[in-house]
Amino acid sequence: MLEADLVMWEVDYANGSTVKEANGIKYEDLNRGQIKTFRLVAPGEVLIEVQTGPAAPGSKLVYRRRTVMGPQGRKVVFVVGFAPMGPIWVVDPQTKHVEMDSGFRENDGRKRPPVPLPEEGITDLEMRGVQV
User: Fold this and answer.
1) What total number of domains does the chain contain?
2) CA dihedral defined by 57, 60, 66, 70, rounded to 10 degrees?
3) Which of 45, 65, 70, 83 has the most CB atoms around it within 10 Å of its CB?
4) What domain range is 56 assigned to?
5) Quick check: 57 pLDDT over 70?
C-alpha cells in the first residue's frame, strides 16, 4: 500500500456541513456551487486546504489523483486547483511537499490540464484556457 492510498478529500459546504470521501461520497456527487473549503487529508494531518471563493469568474474547482513515472519509479501526486485560470497545487503525500503554480501546464505530466468531468461544468477547451 502506498502512502497516497490513505489520502482522502473532505469538503466543507457553505451551510456548515462536511462531506468526506472516507464516508463513501464520490467526487462527482459534490455540490460544487456550495463548496467553501476543499481539503486533502492523510491519517492525522491536513496536507492542503483550499478556500474556494471568491474565485475568478468562470473558474471551476478541479481535483485529480495522478500517477507519474520518475527516476525512482511510480509516484502518486494529487492536483487541486481552479480551471482554467489557476492557481493549482501539486501535493506529494510521501514527502508532504506542496507546490503551487499559477495554472496548468500542457508540457508537465503532473500539471497538465485534466480531461474535464461533466459535473465540473467546464469544457476541455476551457480547461486549457481557450475562450469559447
Assistant:
1) 1
2) 0
3) 83
4) 3-127
5) no
